[in-house]
Design goal:
- The protein is of the alpha/beta class.
- It is built from nine helices and eight strands.
- Helix 1 packs across helix 9.
- The longest helix has 15 residues.
Length: about 210
């Protein structure tokens, strides 16, 4: 299964990707996570990407497309994968069409007000990248990650003014992909407003799997 999770920042793509990846035993390829890793390691790619992610804008297409091409070529992706945060522009979607035959695009729909509320309370494990929310999905280990014991932090780009920029980029550049994949007959819309478990259930049904 080669699938895309499409949706705004904070729509729950990362959370659902984590759950689906365990269930389907295929890896998640998250461009946001790959970029954060490159920024942390201060690789040339990371240094190029940092100014864009810090400002809440999109990293240039060629940088992201090359990064995804390399990642999808690895052994663990041969059985399938879940793309989280890619493609985000029409150019990226067109490039992906030349790399892979995507089976399904799940569009997680969430209203902007909910996105603002969710991102404000988001916490991310600095070691393994697992995500939590202070109110809706707290870690069972309190201030630490319940999976690996790592420290939970706030992402640099989850500040209110950056969130607004990310939402603008989403509406201007990513929302047109809904129509793009609708035309290909691959899009399934899932309401992402609900609790995590309910969204997973709807996501699995949309995929034709038993919840
Ligand atoms: P995310 O974790 O998916 O919200 O991504 C965090 C940030 O990484 C975004 O705000 C962008 O600056 C950058 N980014 C992630 N994926 C992409 C992409 N497919 N194209 C361009 N920029 C991206």
């Amino acid at each position: 299964m080669k699938m895309i999770l499409l949706g705004g920042p904070g729509a729950g793509k990362g959370t659902q990707a984590q759950i689906l990846s365990e269930r389907l035993e295929i890896p998640t390829v998250s461009t946001g996570a790959l970029l954060r890793e490159a920024i942390k390691e201060q690789t040339p790619l990371g240094m190029k990407a940092k100014s864009y992610t810090d400002a809440g804008g999109l990293v240039p297409d060629d940088v992201v497309i090359d990064m995804v091409r390399e990642r999808l070529g690895k052994d663990d992706c041969q059985k399938g994968y879940i793309l989280d945060g890619f493609p985000r522009t029409l150019a990226q979607a067109q490039a992906l069409d030349t790399m892979a035959d995507i089976d399904l695009v799940l569009y997680l729909y969430v209203a902007d007000e909910t996105i603002l509320e969710r991102l404000g309370g988001r916490r991310v494990c600095e070691s393994c990248g697992a995500t939590y929310h202070v109110l809706y999905q707290p870690s069972a280990a309190g201030e630490l990650c319940e999976r690996c014991g790592g420290t939970l932090g706030i992402r640099d780009d989850d500040r209110p003014e950056t969130i607004r920029k990310r939402l603008e980029a989403y509406h201007a550049q990513t929302v047109p992909l809904v129509e793009y994949y609708q035309k290909q007959g691959k899009l399934r819309k899932v309401e992402g407003q609900e609790e995590v478990e309910a969204t997973t259930e709807m996501t699995l049904r949309a995929m034709g799997e038993q919840p």
